[in-house]
Specification:
Largest sheet of chain B: 8 strands, mixed
Helix content of chain B: 10-25%
Strand content of chain A: 5-15%
CATH superfamily of the largest domain in chain A: NADH-ubiquinone oxidoreductase 51kDa subunit
Radius of gyration of chain A: 22 Å
CATH architecture of the largest domain in chain A: 3-Layer(aba) Sandwich
Structural class of chain A: alpha/beta
CATH topology of the largest domain in chain A: Rossmann fold
Number of strands of chain B: 24
Strand order of the largest sheet of chain B: 15-14-21-20-19-16-17-18
Distance between the termini of chain B: 23 Å
Shape of chain A: globular
CATH class of the largest domain in chain A: Alpha Beta
CATH architecture of the largest domain in chain B: 3-Layer(aba) Sandwich
Radius of gyration of chain B: 28 Å
Order of helices and strands of chain A: HHHHEHHEHEHEHHHEEHEEHHEHHHHH
Structural class of chain B: alpha/beta
Shape of chain B: elongated
CATH class of the largest domain in chain B: Alpha Beta
Oligomer: heterodimer
Largest sheet of chain A: 5 strands, mixed
Number of domains of chain B: 3
CATH topology of the largest domain in chain B: Rossmann fold
Number of domains of chain A: 3
Helix content of chain A: 40-55%
Strand content of chain B: 15-25%
Strand order of the largest sheet of chain A: 6-5-9-7-8
C-alpha cells in the first residue's frame, strides 16, 4: 500500500553518491525538463497538486506562479532545511540518504521560475546532513550538473549551503530570508510576500526540502501519476516522522487518505508495550492535539485533519499513551515556544512567557481554578494578531490541550500535584 | 490618485497608495501605535495599530501602518474585536513592565499610560515575578537606559541607524529576554541622540539633562524656534510653571525646516536663559554703576546717542542702512550701532530706523559666535539664527566669529569720541570683539546677559533671550519663523525692539511704535525683500521668502 516517491532510495546503500544515484535513475528528468517551457513546468507542478511539505501546505505550483516575470531583478530560491518543528526529522533523512534527489528538485524549480542562485538554509545543528549535502553538491559541480551551462544547456545555476545558528524562527520563510541577509532572523510583516519582495529585495521562492524532492517524480511520470495518489485536495505522498510512545518510531512515507491510526499501527507497531492510546499530535507541536477517538476516526489528509480541528503541518506525528501527562506536554511545548520567540511583538514574546509560567505552576501542583480560563483567554489574544504564526503555533495547541483534556488539568489543580508523576513532588500542605 | 474609502461607515477621500494609518489619523481617528512613526516609517512589530479590513472572507485584522489605501477599501476601527486586540496588546506590554510610574520621567506623557487609560483599564492578571533586566544604565554622554521599561518598539534603533546614520543601539537577545543595549564597549555618541528620548514611547530612554527635573504635567509648552544655528529648527520650549524656568526644549514638526528632529546642541542650549541675567537698568556715573528705572536709562542713552542733534523733522540721511560718516551734523560724534546676528528682524529694523533718524550713524549686523560643526543633517556652522534676515534688510555684516587679530569688515578704527550702541549680544562675546569694544568711550548696551561688554556699559538696559520674546528670524534658506515668549516676563523688562524704538523717540521727538504688529507692517511695507508676505501671520511652520505662505 505504501508508495515510495521520496524515500525510494533510503534503503539503497550509497544512494547519496552521484554514480549510484544515476544508476538508480537519478537526474533522468533533466533531459525532459530542458525540452519543456518554464511555464509548462509550472503548470505541470500546479496540476499535480503538490503542496508545501514544510508545514503550511500551500500549493507549490501556485507559489511559483506568484513570482513576477520581470527581468530586471535576479530571482532566488531558498530551500528551507531548517527543520525546526518539534517532532519533525524527515528532511534530514533526505539530506543524508538521498541528497541528489533534492538537487534534482532544485534544478527543476529553478528552471521553471528562472532562478540562477539557490541557497539551502540548513539548521546549524545538522552537522552530518550538511556534510553529506555539500559532498553531493560538490559532486554535481564536478560533473557539470551545477555551475555554468548545467548539463551543457546554457542555463547557469549555483547552489550554496548556509548554516543556521540555532533558531526555530529562522524556519519561518521571512525569518529565514532575514537570517540569510546577515540580520537577526526576525520575520517581516507580510505583505509583501517573498515571491515579490524576498531575499535582497528580489523575488524569492521558499520551498521545503521534501517539497522539492517530489519534483523529479512529477517530471518523470507526469502530473497525472502524482495526482492519481491521495485524495481530492491532498495529492501524492508525504514523509511522516512518527515519534512518542510507539514500538518503532521513524520516518514513514505514506499516501494521503489512509486512516491515521491504522497507518501508525501498521508502520510502527502501535503504542509501546501495549499501553492504551491517549492522544495523537498529528502535525508537529504547532498542531492541535487529537484525542484517541478522534485519531481513530480521521484520515491523514489536509481536509480531513483540518475538519477535525488540527493540521497536517510538517507531518510530525507524536503519539501519547495513558502514562503521558498532557499538562507536562503543555509545559514542554510552551518552554520551547517561549525560548524560540524572536521577541518582536508583544502578544508572542509576553504571551509565551506567561504560558510557561502558568504551565509550570499547573504541573507543580500550584495551579489555581482561574488558570484554565486564563489560558484560554490568553491563547485567543495571541492568535491572528502577530507578525508571524509562531504565536498561533503556541496558542492553538495550548488551547486544544486545555479544551480536550480539561479534566486532567483540573485534577492537577484539585490534587495539587501531577497524578502521573511517580511520587509527590513539592506538595504544599492544604 | 484620489480614491474613496469607507471607515466605520463614513466615506472619506484619500490618496491611493498612502499608509492607512496616516489617512486615518489625519481624518481625526485615534489609532494607537508604538512602533510606527511618521518620520521613521512602519516596523510592524507592536501590533497596536491593527484595524479590521472587510474582505470577501469577512473582516480581517491588519496593521494600518503597513496597509496601503486602495479604492473601495472598507475599514472598521471600533468593533469589539479591534477593541479587544488593543486591550490585549496593552496587557501584554504591561506584563513585564516595571511599576516605575512614580519615579519615571515619562509619567504624564507616556504612551503606555495613555493607552491603558484609553484602551484597557482592566485589572492586572499578572501574578508572576516580572522578568528582570538592567535599570538606570549610563549609555553615553546624554542618555540613561532602563531596559525593563523598554517595549522593544525598535524606534530608537531605526532612528539612529536610518536617519542619524550611526547605528549605536540594538536589541539583543530573543523573546521576552530581548533587551535594548549599546554595542559592546561602545556608547551612544550621536549628536542627535536625544531625539530617541522623544521617540521612546515609554521611559526606557531618558535624558540625563532632564532626568528627575520636572514632572511633565507642570510643564507649559510654547512653540518657538531654536536660535543656536542658522537652521532655525522649530521647537517647543517647556517651562516649569512652578518656578517659571525653562526645563527643556523639544522638536516640533516642521516639514520645511527640520522634519521631526533637532540636534542635541540646540536642544541643550537653554540653560543660559536662567544664568547671568541682566536684571535691571544701570547707568554709569564716574565709574560707579547705579541702578535706575527704564525711563532714566532711556533718557541717558538718548543723550549719549543724540548729543545735540535733536531736531524734529530734520532731514534725515538717505534711506538704506549703513550710512557712513558723511552727512554728519556739526558737533555730533559718530555713532556706531552694532546689532547681533542673533537678534530678531524687528530689533534689526528698529536699529535701521534709528540709523536713519540720527545722522552720522554707521550700522552693522555682527556675527560673533564662533562657527560650529556642520553636518549633512541639520547643523549649520553659522551659529546665528538671523544672518539671512540681516541680509534681506540690507544690513552690512561684520564678521567677528573667527577669533583673529585682524580687524574685520569695519572700515576704520572708531574715532576717539565715537559712541557705540550694542544690541543683543546675549550669547557671549569673543576676545576680538572685547578688544574692539575697548576702543569706545561711550557705550550703550541692550543685553539679556552679562558679559565683558555689559561691564563697560555706560547705560545698560536688560534685553530678552529667545525664550522670552516675540520676534521673527530668517534661516539660511530664507524661511521666516516666529519666536514666541515662553516665560512670563517681569514687569520692568521691555522687548529690545521697543527699547530701540524708545531711543528713536528720544532722538526725534516722534512717538515710538505702539505695537510690534505695526512695526512688522511697516517693515513689510518698506522692505522689498519681504513684499507680499504678511509678517504678522507666518504660521506655526513659517513662510519661505519668495514663496506664498505655506
Amino acid at each position: 500500500m505504501s508508495k515510495k516517491i521520496i524515500s525510494v532510495n533510503f534503503d539503497k546503500p550509497s544512494a547519496n553518491k552521484l554514480s549510484v544515484y544515476e544508476e538508480l535513475g537519478g537526474y533522468r528528468s533533466i533531459g525532459k525538463l530542458f525540452r519543456m517551457n518554464p511555464s509548462e513546468v509550472i503548470e505541470e507542478v500546479k496540476k499535480s497538486g503538490l503542496r508545501g511539505r514544510g508545514g503550511a501546505g500551500f500549493s507549490a505550483g501556485m507559489k511559483w506562479s506568484f513570482v513576477p516575470k520581470e527581468m530586471n531583478r535576479p530571482k532566488y530560491l531558498c530551500v528551507n532545511a531548517d527543520e525546526g518543528e518539534p517532532g519533525t526529522f524527515k528532511d534530514r533523512k533526505i539530506l543524508v540518504l538521498d541528497p541528489h534527489r533534492l538537487i534534482e528538485g532544485i534544478i527543476i524549480c529553478c528552471w521553471a521560475v528562472g532562478i540562477h542562485a539557490a541557497y539551502v538554509y540548513v539548521r546549524g545543528e545538522y552537522d552530518t546532513p550538511i556534510r553529506k549535502l555539500q559532498e553531493a553538491i560538490d559532486e554535481a559541480y564536478a560533473k557539470g550538473y551545477l555551475g555554468k551551462h548545467i548539463f551543457g544547456s546554457g542555463f547557469d545555476l549555483n547552489v550554496y549551503v548556509h548554516r543556521g545558528a540555532g533558531a526555530y524562527i529562522c524556519g519561518e520563510e521571512t525569518g529565514l530570508i532575514e537570517s540569510l541577509e546577515g540580520k537577526k532572523g526576525q520575520p517581516r510583516p507580510k505583505p509583501p510576500y517573498p515571491a515579490v519582495i524576498g531575499l535582497f529585495g528580489c523575488p524569492t521562492v521558499v520551498n521545503n526540502v521534501e517539497t522539492l524532492s517530489a519534483l523529479p517524480f512529477i517530471i518523470n511520470e507526469g502530473w497525472e501519476a502524482y495526482a492519481a495518489l491521495g485524495t481530492e485536495k491532498s495529492k501524492g505522498t508525504m514523509l511522516f516522522s512518527v515519534s512518542g510512545m510507539v514500538e518503532r518510531p521513524g520516518v514513514y512515507e505514506e499516501v494521503f487518505g489512509v486512516n491515521l491510526w491504522e497507518f501508525i499501527e501498521r508502520v510502527t507497531g502501535g503504542v509501546k508495550g501495549g499501553r492504551r492510546l491517549k492522544a495523537v499530535i498529528p502535525g508537529g507541536s504547532s498542531s492541535p492535539i487529537l484525542t484517541a477517538d478522534e485519531a481513530r476516526a480521521v484520515s491523514i489528509d489536509y481536509e480531513s485533519i483540518a475538519a477535525a480541528g488540527s493540521m497536517v503541518g510538517s507531518g510530525a506525528i507524536i503519539v501519547l499513551s495513558e502514562d503521558d501527562c498532557i499538562v507536562k506536554a503543555l509545559r514542554v511545548i510552551s518552554r520551547f515556544y517561549a525560548h524560540e520567540s524572536c521577541g518582536q511583538c508583544p502578544p508572542c514574546r509576553e504571551g509565551t512567557f506567561w504560558l510557561v509560567r502558568l504551565a509550570e505552576r499547573l504541573e507543580n501542583g500550584e495551579g489555581r481554578p482561574g488558570d484554565l480560563d486564563l489560558i484560554l483567554d490568553l491563547c485567543s489574544n495571541m492568535m491572528g494578531t502577530t507578525v508571524c504564526v509562531l504565536s498561533d503555533a503556541m496558542a492553538l495547541p495550548a488551547r486544544s490541550y486545555v479544551q480536550k483534556f480539561r479534566e486532567e488539568f483540573e485534577r492537577h489543580i484539585v490534587d495539587k500535584r501531577c497524578p502521573f508523576s511517580p511520587a509527590p513532588n513539592g506538595v504544599r500542605a492544604g | 490618485m484620489s480614491v474613496n474609502i469607507k471607515v466605520d461607515g463614513k466615506i472619506i477621500e484619500a490618496e491611493a497608495g498612502r499608509q492607512l494609518i496616516d489617512v486615518l489619523i489625519e481624518n481625526g481617528w485615534d489609532i494607537p501605535h508604538f512602533c510606527y512613526h511618521p518620520g521613521l516609517g512602519p516596523d510592524g512589530n507592536c501590533r497596536m495599530c491593527q484595524v479590521e479590513i472587510v474582505t470577501p472572507r469577512g473582516p480581517l485584522l491588519a496593521i494600518s501602518c503597513n496597509t496601503k489605501v486602495t479604492d473601495g477599501m472598507e475599514v472598521v476601527t471600533n468593533s469589539d474585536k479591534v477593541k479587544r486586540v488593543r486591550a490585549a496588546v496593552e496587557e501584554f506590554l504591561l506584563l513585564n513592565h516595571p511599576l516605575d510610574c512614580p519615579i519615571c520621567d515619562k509619567a504624564g506623557e507616556c504612551t503606555l499610560q495613555n493607552y491603558y487609560m484609553g484602551h484597557d483599564q482592566k485589572d492586572g492578571r499578572q501574578e508572576f515575578t516580572r522578568f528582570k533586566k538592567q535599570k538606570a544604565q549610563d549609555i553615553g554622554p546624554t542618555l540613561i537606559l532602563d531596559q525593563e521599561r523598554c517595549v522593544l518598539c525598535d524606534r530608537c534603533v531605526r532612528f539612529l541607524r536610518n536617519w542619524a546614520g550611526e547605528e549605536q543601539l540594538y536589541i539583543a537577545g530573543r523573546g521576552h529576554r530581548a533587551f535594548l543595549t549599546t554595542f559592546p564597549g561602545k556608547e551612544v555618541t550621536s549628536p542627535y541622540s536625544l531625539n530617541t528620548v522623544d521617540l521612546c514611547p515609554v521611559g526606557a530612554l531618558t535624558s540625563k539633562d532632564f532626568r528627575f527635573s520636572t514632572p511633565t504635567w507642570f510643564l507649559r509648552r510654547t512653540p518657538s524656534v531654536c536660535t543656536t544655528c542658522s537652521r532655525g529648527c522649530s521647537i517647543e520650549i517647556d517651562v516649569d510653571s512652578r518656578d517659571n524656568k525653562v526645563k527643556r526644549l523639544r522638536p516640533r514638526h516642521n516639514p520645511h525646516v527640520n522634519g521631526y528632529w533637532i540636534c542635541d546642541e540646540g536642544r541643550l542650549n537653554y540653560k543660559f536663559v536662567n544664568t547671568d541675567r541682566v536684571e535691571k537698568c544701570f547707568v554709569d556715573r564716574n565709574g560707579e554703576k547705579y541702578e535706575t528705572s527704564l525711563e532714566n536709562a532711556a533718557r541717558e542713552a538718548g543723550t549719549l546717542l543724540g548729543a545735540g542733534a535733536k531736531t524734529p523733522g530734520s532731514p534725515s540721511t538717505p534711506k538704506g542702512a549703513g550710512s557712513s560718516a558723511g552727512g554728519k551734523a556739526a558737533g555730533q560724534p559718530p555713532l556706531l550701532v552694532l546689532v547681533s546676528a542673533t537678534s530678531t528682524l524687528e530689533e534689526m529694523f528698529a536699529c535701521k530706523l534709528l540709523g536713519r533718524a540720527r545722522p552720522g550713524t554707521t550700522l552693522f549686523c555682527v556675527r560673533h559666535v564662533p562657527d560650529g560643526v556642520e553636518d549633512r543633517l541639520l547643523r549649520k556652522s553659522d551659529r546665528h539664527p538671523n544672518v539671512k534676515g540681516a541680509e534681506l534688510l540690507g544690513l552690512r555684516l561684520a564678521d567677528f566669529a573667527a577669533e583673529s587679530d585682524a580687524l574685520p569688515a569695519l572700515a576704520a578704527p572708531p574715532a576717539k569720541d565715537a559712541v557705540l550702541l550694542a544690541v543683543g549680544f546675549d550669547y557671549g562675546i569673543g576676545k576680538s570683539l572685547e578688544k574692539f569694544f575697548e576702543k569706545f568711550s561711550k557705550i550703550v548696551v541692550i543685553s539679556a546677559r552679562e558679559s565683558a561688554l555689559t561691564k563697560k556699559a555706560h547705560v545698560l538696559i536688560p534685553g530678552l533671550t529667545f525664550a522670552e520674546k516675540e520676534g521673527l528670524v530668517v534661516n539660511f534658506e530664507g524661511h521666516i519663523q516666529m519666536l514666541s515668549p515662553a516665560l512670563d516676563r517681569l514687569w520692568d523688562r521691555v522687548p529690545p525692539w521697543q527699547v530701540v524704538a524708545r531711543l528713536v523717540a528720544e532722538l526725534t521727538g516722534e512717538g515710538g511704535f505702539d505695537t510690534v504688529a505695526n512695526l512688522r507692517k511697516r517693515l513689510g511695507a518698506e522692505e522689498t525683500a519681504f513684499s507680499g508676505i504678511d509678517l504678522n501671520s507666518v504660521g506655526s511652520t513659517g513662510v519661505r521668502v519668495g514663496k506664498s505662505p505655506v
